[in-house]
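Sequence in, structure out.
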Amino acid sequence: MEQLFDAILEVAGKNPDGFTVDLTTLKKVTKGISVAYLETQDSFGEEGLKRVLKHALVHEKKVGGWLNEENGQFYFDSIRIFTNMDEAIRFGRENKQLAIFDLTHLRLVKL
């Protein structure tokens, strides 16, 4: 777990605009629609990342992150990847998300 923690911190440092990573390969996810789980919302800092990793390892094994420029905190999420926009939107609303991210087209979709 510690190696994974360090690896994600390194990815975050190199990608302040945001990233989505598959924990099984540590490779970036570049296709699909990224939607965060409600259970890991508002996770930031080291404790937040630990909580996100625990959740992701028993769910989809995908983690996303982004820098909130308003407060300077790096946020992490356990995420699920969708190929169908309607399903992604439905899951996003069920998980009380304000937006989801289309990785394929690099665009934010507000809900």
